[in-house]
Structure formats: C-alpha cells, structure tokens
Prior knowledge:
The complex is a heterodimer of chains A (333) and B (530). Chain A has 333 residues and is an alpha+beta fold. Chain A has ten helices and six strands. In chain A, the strands form two sheets. A four-stranded antiparallel sheet of chain A has the order 3-4-2-5. In chain A, strands 1-6 form a two-stranded parallel ribbon. The longest helix of chain A is centred in the last third of the chain and has 33 residues, at 227-259. In chain A, 45% of the residues are buried. With 530 residues, chain B is an alpha+beta fold. Chain B folds into three domains: 6-50 and 359-523, Multidrug efflux transporter AcrB transmembrane domain (Multidrug efflux transporter AcrB transmembrane fold, Up-down Bundle), CATH 1.20.1640.10; 69-154, Gyrase A, domain 2 (2-Layer Sandwich), CATH 3.30.1360; 208-355, Gyrase A, domain 2 (2-Layer Sandwich). Helices cover 51% and strands 23% of the residues of chain B. Chain B has helices at 6-21, 30-33, 48-51, 62-83, 108-116, 149-173, 200-206, 223-226, 281-293, 330-342, 359-412, 419-448, 453-485, 488-523, and strands spanning 45-46, 53-60, 88-94, 97-102, 121-124, 127-132, 134-139, 142-147, 180-184, 188-194, 212-217, 234-239, 245-255, 259-266, 273-279, 299-303, 306-309, 321-325, 349-357, 416-417. Chain B has a five-stranded mixed beta barrel. In chain B, strands 9-10-2-19 form a four-stranded antiparallel sheet. Chain B starts with 5 loop residues before the first helix and ends in a 7-residue tail after the last helix. Classes of the chains: A alpha+beta (333), B alpha+beta (530). At the A-B interface, helix 4, strand 5, helix 5, helix 7 and helix 8 of A face strand 19, helix 11, helix 12, helix 13 and helix 14 of B.
Amino acid sequence: MRLLRIVPDDTKFDFMRFRRISFPVSAMLSIAAIALYFFHGLNFGIDFIGGTLMEVQTKAGPADLAKMRSTIGSLQLGEFQLQQFGAPDDVLIRISQQPGGDEAQQAAVQKVRNALGDEVNYRRVEVVGPSVSTELLAYGTIGLVLAIVAILIYLWFRFEWQFALGAMIANVHDLVLTVGFMSLTGIDFDLTSIAALLTILGYSLNDTVVIYDRIREMLRRYKRMSMPELLNASVNATLSRSIVTHVTVAMSLLALLLFGGQAIHSFTATMMFGVVLVGTYTSVFIASPILIYLGVGRGRIGGAEELGPPPAPATASVSSAPLSPPQRARVRR
Amino acid sequence: MLFFTRWKAAAILLTALAVCLCALPNFFSDNVVRHWPSWAQRHIVLGLDLQGGSHLLLEVDSAAVRKEQLQAINDDVLRVLRQARIPFTGRAIRGNSVEVHITRDADIDSALSKLRELSQPLSGFAGSTGQRTINVTDSGSTITLGPTEPAVTERVRQAVDQSIQIVERRVNELGLVEPTIQREGTDRILVQVPGLQDPSRLKEILGKTAKLDFRMVDVSMTAEQAEQAHPADSEILAGETPGQKYLIEKRVLVSGGDLVDAQPGFDQRTNEPIVNFRFNSAGARKFAEVTQANVGKPFAIVLDNKVISAPVIREPILGGSGQISGNFTVQSANDLAILLRAGALPAPLTIIEERTVGPGLGQDSINAGEHAAYAGAALVIIFMFVTYGLFGLFANVAVAVNVAMIFGVLSLLSATLTLPGIAGIVLTVGIAVDSNVLIYERIREEVRAGRTAINAIDAGFSRALATILDSNITTFIAAAVLFYIGTGPVRGFAVTLGIGIITTLFTAFTLTRLIVAYWVRMWRPRVVPI
C-alpha cells in the first residue's frame, strides 16, 4: 500500500529567511492583538464580571424575542441581552450585575423566573456574584502566568536559558494572538476560554519542545554548522511531524466544531485558531528563528561569523572536543 | 529498545488491562454494579454541567463571626469587672478591640490581672501553640482587649465547620438525593445537588440563619414611642407584616439551641398551619420559670431578628412543649420546622455563586460530546492508517488503550468529569497521537538515513522517546500548577490532562513499543512499512 506523505521526504525549505518577514508580521499582529484587548476589549462572560446568565427553552414553538424582551425589560434589572442560542426555541438571557452585592443577584434571578413563569424550561441558570467573579479572573490569570513561569524554569534546567526564553516568547505570542482573535470575534470570554487558552498553551509548548529537542540534538552533532542552517535542518526534519500532528488535531477539532454542540462551540473555534492556525505557524516561523537572536550555541560553534552583521572573530570558548572538518554543506546523514 | 523479557511484557499488558478494566463500571447501570464487590464499584461521577443539577457556593459571613467574638469579649469584660467590683466607665467596642476605662488608678493592676484571665491558651493541632486568644494591653487607665489573629481564624474555622454540619442537616431534611457538601477555601461551602432543577427553595432554606429566641416584649412604652428613645436593654424589631414594629428586650429567655424537636402541624381551633416544638429539660425548666413569672404579659418569638409572633402568656407552660403560630402557609411552616430541627447557623450565609443546569442541556452536552468523539476518532483513525499503514493501526490501538486507561484512572479516583475535563481528554488524545507520529516520523528519518529496518525502528524509538518525555513533562508541569491553584472547571481540566499525560507516557514507552517489538519478532521485516 502506498502511504500518504503530506510532506515529501527531505524537504529543504529555507524557513529562516522568512524571519525577516515573519518577525515584523508577528510583532505587528501581537501589537494589534494587544491594542484590540485594550481598546475593543473582550466580551467577558459572567464568570469574570458577575451577573446572571439564563438559557431558556420556550415550551410552545419558537421564542418570541420581542415579547420576552419587554417582559424582562419591565423588571428594571438594568442592562440585559437576549440572544437566540442554536435552536429557534432556545434563548440566552444575560443580565448585568445588580448593584447591592450577592443577595441582589439572587433576587434578580427570582424576578425573572417569576416573570417568565411556566412558559419556558430553564436549561441553565448561572449567577456569579461580584466577589467570586473577581477571584475567578484573578485565579485564571495567575494560573496562566504561573504555568508559563514553571515551564520556563523547567526548560531552563533542561535546555539552556535561550531555549526557555524562546519557548516563552513563542507561547505568549500564541496566547496573545488568540486573545486578539477572541476580542475581534467577540467570543464570550469565560472559564471555558481559560481552558481553551491552557490547551493552546499545552499544544504550543509541546510543539516548541519537540523542535527544540531536535535543535539541541543537531547542536551536539554538528558543531560547525551555522545557526540558520542548523535551524533550517531541524525544522525541515520535524516538518512532517508538525504537519501530521496538526492535521490530526484539526480533524478532532473539526468534529467538535460540527457535532460538539453550542456549549463548546466557542471553545473549539478558539482552539482551531490558536492551535491549528497560529500554533503551526509559530512552531516553524517564530519558535526556531528566535533562537538566532537569542544567541543559542554561539559558544559551541567554531566560527560565529554568519550570525551577526559584523564578522566576529572566532571565539575563544571553543570546546576541547576535536572539531570535525568545516561542515558548510547541508545536513547529510 | 525492542527487547522485552516475558515478565516485563506480561506486566505491561496486565497493567494496561487492569487500568482499562477499572473503567468498566461506567458502562453498566447502577443496578448491575451494585452487586459487584465494593472495590470494583468506583466509577466516574458526571459533573453537574453534564448530568444537570444545582451548584451553590455559600460564603460564611466572617465579619459577623468577628463581630460576635468582640461582643462576647465585651460581655465578659462587663461580667469580670462587676464580679471584682471594680468601677469602670466607657466600655465600648472600637475597631477590632474592646476598650474599658478603669475609674480608680488603684484598681488598674487587679483589673488587668482579672481581665488577663479571659485570655485562654489557644490549642492547635499539636497541643498548645503558645498563643493566646486575647491580647490585653493597657495605656494608663484604659485597658484594651482584642482577639488575636489566630483566635479569629480559629473561630471562623469553627463557624464554617458548624455551618457545614447545619447545611448538611438542612439539605438532608429537604430530602434531596445524593447532595455533596464540602468546604471550599477558608470560609466557603460548596453545595452540589445533582438533578435539582429549581433551587429556589433550597436557596431560601440555606439563606436563613434560623436563630430563634424567646424574649419578653418591653411593655414600658409602645414601639412608636421607642422610636425616639428606648431603654438600652431593649431593641426595636420588625414583625412579619411590613411596617409592624415591636420593642423587645435584648435578654434571651430561652434560645433555639434548647429545642429538641420541631414539627409542622395545624392549630386545632383555627386550622392554620403552625409549628409544634419541644424543649430539652434545661430549656423546659427555663421556659417554665419564665412563663410562671410572667403570666399575662406578652413575650416574643424572634427568628433572625424578626418577630414571628408575640402572644400573651395565658398560663405557665410547664411541659416543655409549645407551638408557634404566625402567618404561616403549609410550606413555610414546614420550612421553619426544618430550620429549627437543623439548628441555627453560627453566622449568616450568602450565596455567592449559583450554577444550575437542567437535565435536558446536560444530556444534550453528553450526546454532542459523544457524536463529536466518534466523528473525531473516525477521522483520526482513518488518517493515521492512510499515513502510516500497519503502524497507523498500532497507533490507533495505543491511543484507544490510552483513552480507556484515562477513564480507568478517573474511575479509580471517582473523579468528576466536566466539560473542561473532556477538553483535557481531547488535548490528551492529540498528544497521544502526536507521540506516535513522533516515533514513526523518526523511524522514517532513520530509514532514509540508510539504517536497516530493525535498526531504524530501534533508533526511532529511542530518539523519539526522549523528545516525548521532554514535551510531556513540560505539559505535566503546566497541569500540576493548574491543579494546585485552579478552581472548579480549571481544576477538572488539569486532572484529566495530568492523568492523560501519565497514560500517554505509559503507552508510548511500553505498549506501542511492545506491539512493534512483537511485530518485529513475528515478521522479521526487511523494510519498514511506513
């Protein structure tokens, strides 16, 4: 049987050359994402800003949104939103946080329940008080940050600090772009979104470590190869794996997107963007080339002349290992 | 890399099988599983977001606990100084302490030593901690007493413990099925009731402190007159109907703590719903004394600082039982009886988070999850087969075993599976597939580098496994951090992810290798079919 090869064997793409494009583009996109976050903001769900969310299903036919709107409007609960959610008889009601602490939120729910009465089934009622929402946001953020820091420390021990820093930049880049995407699309940002961001972090990290592992291996094996060449060889060697893995992830996400239902729709959409789109790009065009700038392996390579614009003299810190004849040619094994 | 002793192979297969089998109880109905030995009954609990039900997070009002603690010190100061006949002025609660001014300088020393006796050594887990409950300081003739921080913490902890017990009793009295009640953090209580669709009544029951007192009505003036000024030992309390006010003495004659039973019933004359109660012997004696001494006067039944009723004592009540009548409905009489039986909360509880999921939505989520899982699995299985042929099938077997093992471990731990938890499993499946992809791609590379089939497979495994270990440890660290600091949903995600990484490492390092090794031994291949 002839097996599928998405990526042909022995590719020799010069990925490192693209860093002159990919870095400015990524920098601009990241700044745009941050700007979006600050000026456009995230559509924070009740988990983080408090308030009430009710998903109701009308018992008799499609929901009459206008009527429901006027019913709830007459309760004077401040800002509220109604939204069709999936099926025509499914309505999402969002009520902003009520002034007056935790008890006031509960009172508001009771009012809506009384007003809508028996016409609807309550599929979901969520009330998050002010104290909890602040904490959830804080814990979510602290969780993300601490996870990144812990990983950074591990990578620092396991690799060199440049790798740790490179991985962190790549992962934060993924997260920032994803947050930008969430801001742009107005996807509800709630606890599930934090889970999505964590998953993206997990995949991003997995990818970065796989490539870094290969780079480290090549660094040990080809002591005289220039850094861009070595990185190109590493990325090309892992290219097939990167693509295959991301295709399988895209497939399971596609299944979740098509059949997974409304409840995890935004989760999957976010993952699709963060893992499949950004993750693939980052692992090839950001995570590896950034090592050039961070100065990985400068001490190990006999001549670092290709790294910086001014030809640097051969460094004195060459290891005592006998050097193989200058290997300027491509990777061959 | 490809050599396994017989024992090792057997151990690997048995481990995998045993862990997979742990998932078995999930596939049978409770009626079937009930007949199994108890160690085999552990199964995954569906989170409320999947099975429907109510999740309420309650917070114990620790400010009220502190206030009460201060009030107790305040009362103690009064008692101690009066007993010692030391004249004083300006006894008051200021901020977090009680201040008292000793009138005569000569008394200061004796007052200090008397007041210091109020401070008890604070016992910790391992006996005495060397700390005391109250800080007593003096500046000139003013003595300040404040509870120490450990004492406050301890008091709050006790209050939360007590609240949990009472919440448990109340929830059980309501007859709800399989509720879980647990402490969250320092001052919170999580109540989860599967299958409960409308938690309104539960919330109402939990929201009441249910502090019941029997006190005398102050008849020296009317409540309206008291608006301007009233005796210091009395206070104005609201009644059941809006606008109704009573002037009630602060002194508590008998408290709800002396009740042993309370049942709803009907008044024989008016047929209105009432609550019948019975005191314990101490309560009965006190109640008898009070009613004997106050025939013809009104007394008040006060619940949570609200007067339920203020009947006139017509005759001494000696039997220790009585009835409360108010404007009850059958339901509210029943609720009050529940509250009285379960006892009063040491401090008010506030509902700070509520999540209720109807059974329809939960079932929809499960169905959607199942469909998506089947579709995703089908796509991935076909793709892996098309890409890696026979080895793709090996990978599919390994990933399937991996998922079964995740469910096995989750069952062993009786873990709760939530939607974010499912996300964690999806991530794990991705990582598990990836570990196989890494191995196979590495083998392909080694083949291209000119190695023989067996050599290439061997080298592919040993090189790829190093990478797999690295990347999984990194992700595991992330999962561990999230588990320790995360709450609810994030934690569920971290649990499945963490377990998934361990099973992935297990299958990649043992099972996949074992399958391939066995295949190599059987077929002695010259070409690697990938």
